[in-house]
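Run nitrilase through structure prediction, thanks.
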Amino acid sequence: MSASTVRVAVTQAEPAWLDLAAGVTKTCDLIAEAAKNEAKLIAFPECWDPGYPCWIWRHLCKGCHAQSQTYAIESTSFVLHCTALITDAGVEKMKTSGAMGMYSPGGGSSAVFGPDGRRLTEPVNSTTETIIYCDLDLDQIIATKLFADVTGHYSRPDLMSLNVCTRVKKMVCENEKADETEVICDLKNSK
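Sure, done. The structure for nitrilase is below.
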């Protein structure tokens, strides 16, 4: 492994639903396993411990991946996309067999995306508990920025800029139409 490469671990596992002590134990076990496999960083899903009580992304796997790819491209960084999953035992424990989001096993869609948005890891079955490993070549960030740096050479301040208006504006106005003089004044002040 080169000096510019770092091994990361992305979990795809079922939380110890609503059991903080068991969740801490499981977390420590996963960290130890990732460390044995030389991972320098391990990522867990949002609200991992003690488990998110209603996994809203259960069926938006494709949409979640699209968002993660977008985040990667926009920030020119690696994205560690972590999701929890639920098993039959989890459905029974959470008593969600009739619920919209957690009625059957699945939900896992963990992956790693590169700074250019490409998926760097192989898909894993949505019901499989695992740790996904990926060796990130940090030089890919530089290579991607050479192609398209959204905050550097690729940005176009001549076409778009961020302006801050310090004047307090009301959410609700009494008049139906904005005062044109006020709009023109705002435009002049923003220059």
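DSSP finds five helices and six strands in the chain.
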